Amino acid sequence: MTHKSKIAAALGVTVLVVGLILFGSSACKKAAEKTGAPGKGAEAAAPGQQGTILVEGVNDVGGTVKSALGKYFYISQLPGFDIVANGPVDGGDATALLGKDVKMKVVFNRETPSLLVAQGIDVQEGPAQVKTVFSKADATIPEDYFTQKNRNDYPELKITGLNKSADWEGKGKSKVYGKLIPGPGGQGNDISIQDASGKEIAKVVVDKITEFANYDVKKLRLFDTFWFYLNIKDSVDMKLRAKNKEVFHADVVFAGLY
What we know:
5-stranded mixed beta barrel, CATH 2.40.50, alpha+beta, elongated
C-alpha cells in the first residue's frame, strides 16, 4: 500500500468515525426527547455497537475479542474503542481473551472517549456456560494510555541529514513516519525513516516502547509504515551515525496512521 493510499485510508476512517459520532449524538438526543430523560446522558453519550449507546459511567457491552496485548484489547462490535483490564485476566492478561465471545461491564469517561475500562468480564464457554475471568471495581486510566488530545503535542519531525543535530535536539516530543525494523546485529529495534522515493535517510534507536504503543503496532499489522510518536532522548555519537544511520534515541509512546 502506497503512502498516499494509507493517508486516504486514514482519512476515510476519520470521516467514518465522525459520522458515527454525529449519528450517535443525534440518536441519543432523540431518545432523550422522547422519554423526557435528563440532558446529561445525551451529552455524555457515544456511539457503540448496533443498538447500543454508551453513556457516562458503567455500561454493559459484548462481542468477540479480535486483538489483545498485555492489558489492552478490543472487540469487533465496538470499532474505535480500546478496552483495558487493570489486573489479571483468567490468571494471565488480556491475550487470554483472543477469539472469545465476552460480555462486560465497562466504564465510559468522556475525558478519554476512545477508552473503556473493564470492571467485569465474562467469557461464553458454551451454550449455557459462562465463566467470570475478570472483576475489579476500578476505573483508573493507565499511565501509558495515549489520548487523542496528546497528539497535538507531537509535531512532525523532519530530518534533513545525519549530521543535522539541530533537526531533533531540543525538540522533546515529535512524530516520525517510518517502519519498525530490527536494530544492528538484531539487537533491539530501530525506526527506519525514508524519503518520498523510499530511500532510507535515517534511523531512530528505540530504547523503550510502552505497552499501549506495542498494542497499537499489533493493531496496525496490515501496514508496514505508519506514524510513531516519540519522546526524543540523546543523539547518537557523530562517528556512529554514518555507519548505522542511527541519529538519536527515543521512547515510543504511540503508533497510528496519522
